[in-house]
Amino acid sequence: MTDKRRLKTAVDKVSEIIDSKPEIGLIFGSGLGSLADEFEGLKRKSFKDIPDFPESTVEGHKGEYVFGKLNGVDVLALSGRIHYYEGHTMGEVCFPMEVMAECGIKKLIVSNAGGGVNENFTPGDIVIIDDHINFMGDNPLIGAADFIDMTDAYSRDLRDIAAAVGADLDIDLKRGVYMANSGPSYETPAEINMARVIGADIVGMSTVPEVIMANKYGIQVLGLSMITNMAAGITGEALSHQEVIETTTMAQEKFKDLVRETVGKI
Ligand code: HPA
């Protein structure tokens, strides 16, 4: 269970950078945080300046809240998330998301880097997440006995809007199911075959905990995956975190265009 006092302390700290009540929250995945650099009136709050905040240690994850106007709209963004594979509990992983929820956001755009399981995908593709499979073996609501409906975990309305924005921008957006594994090892080829059989199009190590928590708060979610590599066993090449960072760097302009325009329409 979340410690309410700790949550309130964090909300108070993050509120120092918020001028108005932002309705839209953004969570940036690996290497996708540079969109924050173009926020108008940008203000930052480092995780380090928030008492008892969980620490993120991964390369490409800065660890800060950023507030500002994107495409004329107030947004509160999380640059650098906390991962389960870093050894944090699900509660810690979702803490930054809960802070955003308590700051009043109503809609969340969450992004991640993922491996392509669907062989129609290519590295650099952006995928609208239609649904997920929680294969992490854990759930952030354990202990709370919260029976949250997950039928529309990824808002149909927001998915439709993002798809329309993609078409306007001439971005060949894909659609798919995201399967979250705990990591930090990448999957084996056998695990990827299983993932495909059970209906996954993308594999990754994040997003699902925050999306479950966002649904608990009644927040509408749009999930976007950047395919950074084909999943294990598909090309015969070894996987590396370096490749993940390189692909996000290469394809991030397209991602930024999509998020910027979508924020203006939701
Ligand atoms: N598997 C899991 N997580 C990932 C991958 C992958 O292939 N690529 C980027 N994140």
Radius of gyration: 17 Å
Query: What is the number of beta strands?
Result: 9
Report the structural category: alpha/beta
- Structurally, the number of domains stands at 1
Q: At CATH's second level, what is the architecture?
A: 3-Layer(aba) Sandwich
Sheet with the most strands: spatial strand order: 5-8-7-6-9
Strand % is 15-25%
* Name of the top-level CATH class: Alpha Beta
Helix content: 25-40%
Q: How would you state the average pLDDT, rounded?
A: 93
CATH-defined fold name? Rossmann fold
Tally of helical segments: 6
* Hetero compounds: hypoxanthine
Features:
5-stranded mixed β-barrel; 30% helix; 9 strands; binds hypoxanthine; 266 residues; alpha/beta; Rossmann fold
Describe the structure.
The protein is an alpha/beta fold. The chain has one domain (4-258): Nucleoside phosphorylase domain (Rossmann fold, 3-Layer(aba) Sandwich), CATH 3.40.50.1580. The protein contains 6 helices and 9 strands; from the N terminus they run αββββαββαβαβαβα. It has helices spanning 4-15, 90-102, 156-168, 189-197, 208-216, 241-263, and strands at residues 24-28, 40-46, 64-70, 73-79, 107-116, 126-134, 174-180, 202-204, 220-230. A 5-stranded mixed barrel has the order 5-8-7-6-9. The longest helix is centred in the last third of the chain and has 23 residues, at 241-263. Hypoxanthine binds next to β5, β8 and β9.
Summarize the entry for a quick read.
With 266 residues, this protein is α/β, with parallel strands linked by helices. The chain has six helices and nine strands, in the order αββββαββαβαβαβα. A five-stranded mixed β-barrel has the order 5-8-7-6-9.
